[in-house]
């Protein structure tokens, strides 16, 4: 007899507070736009803020929210703070959505099969 190689267990899902924080951050269109822009290249605060019609302190609050939930990270050289995307947090969201999609696809398939079974029973002569 051959022993099957052990299949590694999937990593545990992140705590709900992590997912909540990421979804809360992404609920705002300005923050989603910043995430999208940082997806192509890192940028300084002034480069990022130049595209928005808002006061710099207000824009920095958006960056703090994004950094607080781990979607972006920053580093400071001299007086310039530069932000970059942390794609691992987006992967958490993608994994969560994928699990939800699988769950609801399975449930809808079961409902479809049940409804087809009911229809066939109604059409079957007694």
TrEMBL record:
What is this protein's name?
Transcriptional regulator
The record's GO molecular-function terms, alphabetically, read: DNA-binding transcription factor activity
| Matches recorded under CDD domains | HTH_ARSR (cd00090)
Q: Which organism is it from?
A: Caulobacter mirabilis
For the HTH arsR-type domain, which residue ranges apply?
11-105
Gene3D superfamilies in the cross-refs: Winged helix-like DNA-binding domain superfamily/Winged helix DNA-binding domain
What Pfam families does the entry give? HTH_20
Signal peptide (residue range): none
